[in-house]
Amino acid sequence: MREPPFLGRRHTIVALALLASACSAATTTSTGTPARTSSRQPTPEPSTPLAAVRVSLEQIATLEQPLALTIRTGDPALYVAEKTGRVMAIRNGRVDPTPALDLSKEVSLGGEQGLLGLAFSPDGRFLDVNYTDVRGDTRIVEYAFRDGRAVPASRRQLLSVDQPYDNHNGGDLVFGPDGYLYIGLGDGGSAGDPQGNAQSLGTLLGKMLRIDPHPADGRPYSIPPDNPFVDRAGARPEIWAYGLRNPWRYAFDRATGDLWIADVGQSAWEEIDRHAADAPAGTDYGWNLVEGSHRYTGSAPHGAVPPTYEYSHAGGGCVVIGGAVYRGSDIPALVGAYLFADYCLGELEAIRLGDGDVEHAVLGPTVPNISSFGEDAAGEIYVLSLDGGVYRLTRG
Questions:
Q1: Could you tell me the domains of the chain?
Q2: Whether the Cβ atoms of residue 300 and residue 350 lie closer than 8 Å to each other
Q3: Given 76, 222, 248, 350, which residue has the most CB atoms within 10 angstroms?
């Protein structure tokens, strides 16, 4: 018995194994409300029902507790962050023997802590990492990147956030289609958001941040002028969205620009949120007044956006693991579907938006201790396990 070492809860969870007898594929409708449709026109979706799609997993590497995977412009390698502090490159099916970056002496490793996220600047010149330091506080640090390695002497801290507890650190980093850096932070930890951080615009905790990482006016980063709270007194101008508990992985749909966020629930509901590319910023996702679309400490705030999809723990789930929209070519029937999993179940799942409904299906493979998803330059999907496996999604 143990708890997820990166998304821990205050209750124990059964250790995972391959669940060969788990649910067969089935199509259901979400209890959540589909988000607004993007004005962008995505690639035409296939007519094959998700319940008829079968996929497999091909293991391409074994690493030490991999937590995040990203790519770099013009570079065929896959770059993977290990929880223990190293960034490793996978080239032509082989792991580089020398880390692209080694922060193993600088990160804390308790529970949900460690090296949690990484992202390359759109031009590939810089590597940004998100980790908890030896005191357990969040640090966002940038390095120049040359010849397949981060340049240690170029280290530049963008942001530091004090963490009141040792869980709910968020940790993902993603550059959006707009070229800005999106930083997901959890509510600061403990249980139930005791400090009310997620609903407070005066703190960065429980938020999605959006910054321009280029230094300006003597500061390490600047604020995009169209961020929603730039001119609001008492609000942090970095905030792009709020009311999040622990956004564990989020990704932009490369065809539509929509942002999909997997937000870990408290004790009853897991949720997946979708922010359409043409929707206004400043969204409140409701935590800690609501968990998913359900009352937690109060009623949903005025204007709060409900989940696109949610599921209860009654079916054995415990922690939602995001997640990316499939835009590859190897599995045409899966195009346009958002892939995700649950840590306790380990099954690969998918949802796809329809005419007022959300189509859902279990795809087949099960991954023990699943930790994250990633995409390559062609839009193919990769799945990571804390057991060490890095897998490529293939047609079943």
A1: 28-395 (2.120.10.30)
A2: no
A3: 248
